[in-house]
């Protein structure tokens, strides 16, 4: 069945979507990380709708998406940064924009308080997805967009995920196919002293540190100490099915139960387990709920499949999902962050 909400992205549908954004409506659109739920960043009513549609608490601020570095100055006042961080901001935007890096910067007073939940800062991201860039340019140049899912749910990496979660309450979903990166952007706060990673994401910490030196990381659970990142709640990105996170060793020792699902980090660890439990890969049925994130331990591939596979496993009606931790390097940090929250 063709959905009346989902439009294949092309020049016409982009113009139509941009018009909706200009008139204060919400549009879901693809980015390289996950699908976003966009609204004009300068329209308070559109912003209020974003919070309502997502059932998102008002204390959890939004990311503003831009498509030209020039727009930066209309949203942030970089002169308020410490000199060293001003230089780091220039290095980071020069190297990693457009791409999966969100920078938290001093907010200009003209930016509605609702965007940043009353904080003196604003989170800015320049996505690399060409159609996302066009949509932003064709509309108002500044589009506030959280991930296009109900608060706390799994993030969408396909138009169909958005429709299943938010279908009844948005005007249009632009379909650009599956998202490449598959996990949300890395959020980096430059407004303090040492740059601080508020959310691990599509740009690995190692790459950031190779460019600007040491970074800090906030404690994982949202409680005290992590105030600067109000949206980083302990339970988040959660499937409806209970998820249990295991080390590789624990995972290898799990018995097979027909009503449970198993998500291995890579194919070799899945195959070792299958042999242990008496299965052979050839006998594996699609409905069995046994999956791996990467063929050969590639964290980039694994991140790209994470939400996609979790959406699928969630639909199988199993009583629980067992998931194996990723090695912590590179994008493994973002994968583990999402799995830990999904399990909380
Ligand atoms: O990849 C992404 O970033 C996706 C796509 C759509 O661009 N967007 C996304 O937005 O993940 P959202 O709303 O689901 O996550 C935004 C995160 C939250 O953890 C929020 O707390 C944090 O960014 N954030 C936003 N503004 C902030 C600010 N001013 N200070 C600190 N954290 C902020
Ligand atoms: Mg989100």
What does this structure look like?
The chain has 344 residues and is α/β, with parallel strands linked by helices. 32% of the residues lie in helices and 18% in strands. The strands form two sheets. An eleven-stranded mixed beta sheet has the order 1-8-2-3-7-4-6-5-9-10-11, sandwiched between helices. The chain has a four-stranded parallel beta sheet with strand order 12-15-13-14. Helix 1 packs across helix 5 (130-138). Bound molecules: threonylcarbamoyladenylate (TXA) and magnesium ion (MG). The site of magnesium ion has 3 residues, from loops.
Task: Annotate the secondary structure layout.
Elements: E1 6-8, H1 11-22, E2 27-29, E3 36-40, H2 44-54, E4 63-65, H3 72-75, H4 83-96, E5 101-106, E6 121-125, H5 130-138, E7 143-144, H6 159-166, E8 172-175, E9 186-189, E10 196-199, H7 205-212, E11 216-217, E12 242-246, H8 248-252, E13 260-266, H9 267-276, E14 290-294, H10 299-314, E15 320-324, H11 332-343
Parallel strand pairs: 1-8, 2-8, 4-6, 5-9, 10-11, 12-15, 13-14, 13-15
Antiparallel strand pairs: 2-3, 3-7, 4-7, 5-6, 9-10
Bound molecules: threonylcarbamoyladenylate and magnesium ion.
């Amino acid at each position: 069945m063709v959905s009346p909400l989902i439009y294949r992205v092309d020049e016409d549908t982009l113009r139509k979507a941009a018009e909706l954004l200009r008139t204060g409506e919400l549009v879901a659109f693809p980015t390289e990380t996950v699908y976003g739920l966009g609204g004009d960043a300068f329209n308070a009513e559109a912003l209020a709708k974003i919070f309502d549609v997502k059932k998102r608490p008002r204390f959890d601020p939004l990311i503003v998406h831009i498509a030209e570095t020039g727009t930066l100055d209309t949203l942030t006042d970089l002169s308020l940064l410490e000199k060293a961080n001003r230089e780091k901001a220039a290095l980071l935007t020069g190297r990693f924009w457009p791409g999966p890096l969100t920078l938290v910067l001093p907010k200009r007073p003209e930016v509605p308080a609702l965007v940043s939940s009353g904080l003196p800062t604003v989170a800015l991201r320049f996505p690399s997805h060409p159609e996302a860039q066009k949509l932003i340019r064709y509309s108002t140049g500044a589009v506030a967009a959280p991930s296009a899912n109900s608060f706390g749910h799994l993030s969408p990496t396909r138009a169909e995920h958005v429709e299943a979660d938010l279908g009844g309450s948005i005007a249009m979903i632009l379909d650009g196919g599956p998202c490449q990166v598959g996990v949300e952007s890395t959020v980096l706060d430059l407004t303090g002293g040492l740059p601080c990673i508020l959310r691990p994401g599509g740009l690995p910490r190692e790459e950031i540190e190779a460019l600007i030196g040491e970074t800090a990381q906030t404690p994982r659970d949202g409680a005290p100490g992590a105030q600067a990142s109000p949206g980083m709640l302990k339970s988040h990105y959660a499937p409806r099915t209970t998820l249990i996170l295991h080390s590789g060793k624990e995972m290898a020792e799990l018995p097979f139960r027909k009503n449970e699902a198993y998500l291995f980090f890579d194919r070799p660890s899945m195959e070792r387990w299958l042999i242990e439990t008496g299965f052979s890969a050839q006998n594996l049925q699609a409905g069995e709920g046994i999956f791996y994130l990467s063929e050969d331990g590639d964290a980039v591939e694994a991140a790209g499949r994470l939400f996609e596979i979790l959406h699928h496993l969630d639909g199988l009606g199993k009583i629980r999902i067992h998931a194996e931790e990723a090695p912590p390097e590179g994008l493994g940090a973002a994968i583990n962050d999402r799995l830990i929250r999904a399990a909380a």
